[in-house]
Amino acid sequence: MPITTPKQKTTQRIKMRIHKGDTVQVITGKDKGKTGEVLRTLPIENRVIVQGVNIRTRHVKPTQEGESGRIVTEEASVHASNVMLYSNNKKIASRVALVVEKDGSKKRRLKKTGELID
Fold this sequence. Notes:
By secondary structure, the protein is an all-beta fold. The chain is built from no helices and 10 strands. It has strands at about 25, 35-40, 45-50, 55-60, 70-75, 80, 85, 90-95, 95-100, 105-110. The strands form 3 sheets. It has a 6-stranded antiparallel β-sheet with strand order 6-3-2-1-7-8, with no helix packed on it. Strand 2 and strand 3 form a beta hairpin. The model has no long low-confidence stretch (mean pLDDT about 90).
């Protein structure tokens, strides 16, 4: 009988086309249709944290004597495949294309609007 090993998590970074500070729209899930700014990217897990999306409530115990416990709400991560870059000018979500400029630099461009992001 073959010996099975537990599934290992990959530690390889995944190239993401969504960066911190981008405006994105959620395309699936309970927060579908919401837009927000990317607060943080997690490239190893291929996830992003978006402002105002996937809100979780956490109960925090008091750390010092005399302090009371509290309830904290915070954004949890969303898989990067569940969000699309959003154009604030045209109010539309779009896929991303990488464009190589004449000087050799790479820019991101929205496919639907042709708008350059970087």
